[in-house]
Amino acid sequence: MSEIKSVAITGASGNLGPHVLKALIDANFQVTVLTRSRKPGAYDASIRVVEVDFTSVESLTAALNGIDGPVSTLGPAVTESQTVLIDAAIAAGVKRFIPSDYGSCSTNPKLKDHPIYAQMFTVRQYLQDKAKAGNLAWTVLVCGAFLEFLLDMPMMLDFENHKATLYDEGDNRISSTSLSNVGNAIVAILKNFEATKNKIVHTSQVILTQNKLLRIAERLRPDIKWETSKVQTSAILKEGLDGVTAGDFSMPVIFKILKGTAFAGDVYGSAYDETDNDLLGVKELTEKDLESLVAGKLT
After folding, report:
1. Containing structural domain, residue 251
2. Does residue 102 lie within any of the structural domains?
3. Ramachandran region of residue 178, left (φ > 0), alpha (ψ -120 to 50) or beta?
4. Are residues 97 and 110 in the same domain?
5. 186 membership: H or E segment, kind and range
6. C-beta of residue 20 within 8 angstroms of C-beta of residue 12
7. Do 32 and 137 fall into the same domain?
8. Are residues 191 and 256 in the same domain?
9. Among 3, 5, 59, which residue's Cα sits nearest to residue 32?
10. pTM for the structure as a whole
């Protein structure tokens, strides 16, 4: 029986947040949404919504009183600010904290000092130190790239224009999980309290390469001619790092850092050959499943 009954979620209106919120509600948790400003009609009337000051331990502590497990889905721009949320969680006496650390290679030590990743390492270390002191327990969910992002955006293949910019040679492997299954995995973490305590767990619905997707697309639609080019992930990463060094923290620069690492395949461990899928209740995609997804993108 899970020790978690009440859950608070931050970032519920972002890209991942709505899927996690739905999964929590469907699993019959008592859910509270923490938000900077309550917008009329943003959430179902049955959902408890609390306005908070994310810079204030006092404000967050008051909101977290009676909460068993806060789940953060805050965006990368405010990753490090989660330490305030952690302090509040400890003050409120929560049982489990799940930070916003849903990446492809965010736990790889090679990236400890890189922008974006450094903040994740800071938060993770902060949680580990607090756990050692007996203040709370934590779980980090590593889920790879969101499947919708890889297929709906021109990340791996540009399905709309039939173009493919291959990273390195196009064979770099990357794990991927759908947004809804990330939500389901978070539910499983909360329900499997002891098995996931103070651990980094991995889920992966499928391991993709650009060439694999391209072969499927060509087999399904041999009439479509694809235009391909190549780019080095190391060059993309350097551009991103140089931009940050020059003081540019814009999203295009940040995305270069993310692409230059996540799409570098085994260089930073973006593909998980061993996972916790069984524990987290995540089923891997079959070849037929993947073909159906690709077929739906071909025009």
Report:
1. 146-174+205-272+279-297
2. yes
3. beta
4. yes
5. helix 179-191
6. yes
7. yes
8. no
9. 5
10. 0.94
> CA-CA distance, 130 to 149, in Å (whole number)?
34
Q: Are residues 69 and 122 in the same domain?
A: yes
| Token output for 58 | 């006092």
Q: What is the CATH number of the domain that holds 42?
A: 3.40.50.720
Using alpha carbons, select from 199, 182, 196 the residue that is nearest to residue 2: 196
Name the E strands within the chain.
Answer: 6-10, 30-35, 48-51, 69-72, 96-97, 137-142, 145-146, 163-167, 174-177, 199-202, 206-208, 227-231
Same domain for 290 and 221?
yes
Tell me how many domains the chain contains.
Answer: 2
Asked if 236 and 165 touch (Cβ cutoff 8 Å), the reply is: no
pLDDT of 1 over the 60 cut:
no
Q: Average of pLDDT values for 88-103? A: 96
Specify whether 27 is located in the same domain as 139: yes
Considering Cα of 242, then 150, then 275, then 27, what sign does the dihedral take? Answer: positive
In the chain, what is the straight-line distance between the N-terminal and C-terminal CA atoms, in Å?
48
φ and ψ at residue 271, rounded to 5 degrees? -115, 130
Q: Which two tokens stand for residue 111?
A: 């990236």
- What is the reported pLDDT for 268? 97
State whether 163 and 252 are in the same domain. yes
Find the CATH number of the domain harbouring 213.
3.90.25
How much of the chain is in helix, strand and coil states, percent to nearest 5? 40, 15, 40
In a domain, 1, yes or no: no
Q: How far apart are CA 291 and CA 299, in angstroms?
A: 14
Please write the tens of the pLDDT for every residue from 116-172: 899 999 999 999 999 999 999 999 999 999 999 999 999 999 999 999 999 999 999
Q: Tokens in use for 209? A: 């390469």
The residue assigned the tokens 């902060």 is 126
Angle formed at CA 27 by CA 186 and CA 290, multiple of 5 degrees: 60
Distance CA 59, CA 16 (A): 24
